[in-house]
Amino acid sequence: MRLFETRPDDDGLPGPERRIAMLVLVLGTLMAVIDTTMINIALPSIARDLRIAPSRAVWVLSLFQIVCAATLLLFASLSELLSRRRLYIAGLTLFTLASWGASLSGSLETLLLFRALQGLGAAATLSIGPSLYRMIFPTRLLGAAMGMSALVVAAGYASGPTLGGLVLSVVDWPWLFAMNVPLGGAALFLAWRALPAEPRRRGGFDMFGAMFSATMLASFFLAMDTVGHGGSGQKIAVLLAVSGVTMWLFVWRQRRASHPLLPLSLFDEPRFTLAVMVSGLAFVGQGLAFVALSFLYQQEMGLSPLQTAWLFTPWPLTIMLTAPLAGRLADRVNPTALSTLGLVLLLTGLVSLALLETESGVVDSLWRTALCGLGFGLFQAPNNREMMSNVPKARSANASGMMSTVRTVGQSLGVALVGVFLAASLGSVQASLWLGCAALSGAVAISLRRIPLSLAPPRDAASQRPSPRSD
């Protein structure tokens, strides 16, 4: 396989070690992504068994997402002090042990505690995953590696609900958490063996920046969660105000800290900055579409939850098929032009869904969602390559954390926009898809602006082969 070919002038790991290290990243990502989508299916069972209201059971999912999102930047910066190898292993260990604890929980409070710990473990691994791909693979194969990463995430989202349903048809919900224990053990064994060591940065840690960052993101996601559950406008306004103030304090701190949590010099490179902006808008559109289509299919088209799940399948399935090819192409052709083409196809697909008649048949819906998946698959891996290749390797962990945070914030904002649209009775659910089209139109406009910049010679920093393990 081309991903594991070794050339004399390659940076990154040799082919055989590269294969094992990639397996570690695949297992870690799949556990974190599938865990989120599987638990959606189990919430009614959890509410029944723990004798709690369904509204309280939703916190089993929400708390995991809030903790994970709020600590992504923190762990990306912390990896420079601990080394990415140590942090990834620690994150895997915490996630695996917390999964075991969640499987033994007999009350909501205990389950929420272990879900919060799972969120911390997932954040530690997801925050530095893309930067580890850059460390493990040679620069010439970075696009292909990003394509494989996108495939793994899409596979997790696509298989999670089905896997959760199959498990729950045979055993009770605690087994959904228990499944992570043997997988986590295998990933830890391979991680100790294969993940490369690296020099650790000397110096302090931006504790105030970490506090401001966590408060900023946690209050933002709590506000989005409140919007999604129809909470009071006053509470939403207070949470957004807290998020806005701490964001200002965070930026102020980053300009003065000797070792900032998120070095603002990353944004001196316009290609990185524009890629971040495009990614955020694209995930707003995707997050909005996923929620709006669920309501459209079930409430306005009268389809069952199972039929709705099947209508969603072409989206992640097409990403799985397209992303690896797009990643390989991004190593050979202009990745910015390729990701822009993907955005245009994604926008076209979402416009076609917004124009979908409620009397339309299943086939008429399937090709439209497949077109969206094709566009997103062509967009994601080349755009991720653009982000990771336009920062120095020494800053790749920070860029990785930024990439994960932007993805999570974008998706949550898209979900919240649907909630606002429905709460304000601004029209039919289908009409809310035009909000996603507007976000994607902005992404296309920005992406077209960056094509001339991408024609200049790349400024990818040269790198050295990772050092032998010393820890």
TrEMBL record:
Residues 21-454 form the Major facilitator superfamily (MFS) profile domain. GO terms for molecular function: transmembrane transporter activity. The keyword Cell membrane applies. The chain crosses the membrane at residues 20-45, 57-75, 87-106, 112-129, 141-158, 173-192, 204-224, 236-252, 272-297, 309-330, 337-354, 366-383, 404-425. Its main location: membrane. Keywords: Cell membrane, Membrane, Transmembrane, Transmembrane helix, Transport. It is found in: Cell membrane. It holds the Pfam family MFS_1. GO terms for cellular component: plasma membrane. It is a multi-pass membrane protein. The keyword Transmembrane helix applies. Signal peptide: none annotated. Belongs to the major facilitator superfamily. EmrB family. This is Major facilitator superfamily (MFS) profile domain-containing protein.
